[in-house]
Amino acid sequence: MLRVINSYSAITLVARSLVVFDIDDTLVNFPDYGLDWFAAKKAGYEQTMSKAEADQRTIQEWRAAVSAVDPRPIDKEGFHRFCRQAEAQGCDIIYLTARSETLKETTHRHLQHALGLASDHVYFGEDKGPALAKILESLPRTYPHVIFVDDYVKNHESVRTTLDSLGIPVDTYHFQMM
Questions:
Q1: Same domain for 56 and 10
Q2: Are residues 59 and 102 in the same domain?
Q3: Which label site among 12, 124, 137, 140 has the fewest CB atoms less than 10 Å from its CB?
Q4: How many domains does the chain have?
């Protein structure tokens, strides 16, 4: 089931679950390089190139732009409160981003700067359903339930389809900033 939320406190924890957070526009954001910026850039490029080329060019520019700045946390206190509650229920938390792995160092710096996180549990994968399936296979522990939090509907569909095919119960939360 997909639930729309704008606060981490709206996530219903299930004991011993794996909680999977997206990073951009779910935990941190770049006010100057958000969806409006992306849409405007892409629309401009589509005047002179294909949609696929415009998308790739815009992604390249976004990567360059966010590599040079630090993000702001969406709700640092609320996120840390959620993490404490998840830990108390025996849940593990990982981070799955659609960013390119070429941004690995930048991603770790962003998480450290914005949220004070120094995590080895950051994974990269554009198609999040298959990426999460590979992550689950690689983890030393199995989970009776997965909780997935992301701002992009396409990622929810991918995760639900993949985990349903594997028989893994999943709750997905569509995070929308206020």
A1: no
A2: no
A3: 140
A4: 2
pTM of the shown model:
0.93
* Burial state string for 102-114 with b = 16 or more CB within 10 A and e = fewer than 16: ebeebbeebbeeb
Pairing outcome for strands 2-5 and 92-97:
unpaired
pLDDT band at 120 (very low <50, low <70, confident <90, very high): confident
Is 79 within 8 Å of 99 (Cβ atoms)? no
Q: Are 149 and 22 in contact (CB under 8 A)?
A: yes
- What integer pLDDT is reported at residue 178 of this predicted model? 66
Query: Which structural domain, as residue segments, surrounds residue 96?
Result: 2-29+71-175
Give the end of a domain, one of 67, 95, 124. Answer: 67
Tell me which residue of 120, 170, 121 sits closest to 150, measured CA to CA: 170
If asked whether residues 53 and 97 sit together in one domain, one would say no
CA 49 from chain center: how many Å? 29
